[in-house]
Amino acid sequence: MAKWVMEIIYSTGYAGILMLMFAENVFPPIPSEVIMPLAGYMIADGKFTFVGVILAGTVGSVLGSLPLYYAGRSFGEERLKALADRHGRWLTVSALDIERTKKWFDKYGAWALLVGRLIPGIRSLISIPAGLDRMNAALFLTYTTIGMAFWTTILASLGYLLRANFGKVEEYLNPISIAVIGGLIILYIYRVFTHKKTRF
Question: The whole model's pTM is what?
Answer without folding.
Answer: 0.75
